[in-house]
Write a structure and sequence with these properties.
- By secondary structure, the protein is mainly α.
- The termini are far apart.
- It is 82% helix and 0% strand.
- It has one domain.
- Helix 1 runs antiparallel to helix 2 and helix 6 packs antiparallel against helix 7.
- The longest helix has 32 residues.
- It is globular, with a radius of gyration of 18 Å.
Length: 211
C-alpha cells in the first residue's frame, strides 16, 4: 500500500485537486482558487520528478495567478457590493493585447525550449513548437479566467485536448510514467469540462443580464 502511494499518490492527488478546481470553475465559485493552488503545488512536484521542467514552470505561473484570481474575485465583489464578480466577454482591445502578448510569450518559450537544453547539455522537448503553443495559450486562458472572461473556456477546449494527447505521449516516452497517465486522463476530463463550463457560464450570463 505504501509503495502504491509512493508511486501514484502525487499524481492521483494532483488529479483529484485539479478536478475539484475544475468543478468550482464551472460553478463560478471562488473556491476554485485555493484548490488551484493545491493542484499547482502537487503538479510542480510531479513534473519536477518527471523532469518536465517547462511544464513545471507553467505550474509556478498557475500558482501565482491563483493567488491573483483569489484576490481579484474577493476584492472586486466586495468593492462593488456584490456576492460575485460578473462574467464578461472579451473586448476588442483585449483581443489585440492578448494576441500580441500571446505571440510574444510563444516566441520566448519556443526560443527557450530550442536553445536552453543545448546550452545545458540536457535533453530537449520532443515537441517544442506544440509545447510552446499550448503553454502560451494556457498563460492567456488562465489570466482570462482570473478576470472572469467567458472566452477562456474556448481556449481551454483546444489546449486541454492537445495536452491530453501530449501527456499520453510523454507518459510513454518517460518510461510509462504513471503520474503522467493520470494527467492525460485528467485533460480528457478537462476537455469535456471546458465545453460544459462554457455552456454553463453562458447560462449564468443570460441570467445575470435579466437581473
Amino acid at each position: 500500500m505504501l509503495e502504491y502511494i509512493k508511486m501514484y499518490g502525487m499524481g492521483a492527488a494532483g488529479t483529484v485537486a485539479s478536478l475539484i478546481y475544475l468543478y468550482y470553475s464551472i460553478r463560478e465559485k471562488i473556491w476554485l482558487w485555493p484548490w488551484g493552488i493545491v493542484a499547482s503545488a502537487l503538479s510542480i512536484w510531479v513534473f519536477f520528478t518527471s523532469r518536465l521542467y517547462a511544464d513545471m514552470s507553467l505550474q509556478f505561473y498557475y500558482l501565482i495567478v491563483s493567488f491573483y484570481g483569489w484576490w481579484f474575485w474577493s476584492y472586486s465583489s466586495t468593492s462593488k457590493n456584490k456576492d460575485e464578480v460578473p462574467i464578461s466577454k472579451v473586448s476588442q482591445s483585449q483581443v489585440v493585447n492578448l494576441t500580441i502578448i500571446g505571440v510574444g510569450v510563444y516566441l520566448i518559450i519556443l526560443l527557450a525550449l530550442l536553445k536552453i537544453p543545448a546550452m545545458l547539455d540536457i535533453a530537449g522537448s520532443e515537441m517544442p513548437y506544440l509545447d510552446a503553443a499550448t503553454t502560451a495559450a494556457s498563460f492567456m486562458a488562465t489570466w482570462m479566467l482570473a478576470r472572469k472572461i467567458i472566452e477562456h473556456w474556448l481556449i481551454w477546449i483546444v489546449v486541454d485536448f492537445v495536452s491530453m494527447v501530449m501527456y499520453f505521449y510523454k507518459a510513454q516516452v518517460y518510461n510509462n510514467s504513471a503520474d503522467l497517465y493520470f494527467y492525460s486522463f485528467l485533460f480528457l476530463i478537462y476537455t469535456a469540462g471546458a465545453y460544459w463550463g462554457f455552456k454553463q457560464w453562458q447560462k449564468i450570463m443570460i441570467r445575470e443580464s435579466k437581473v
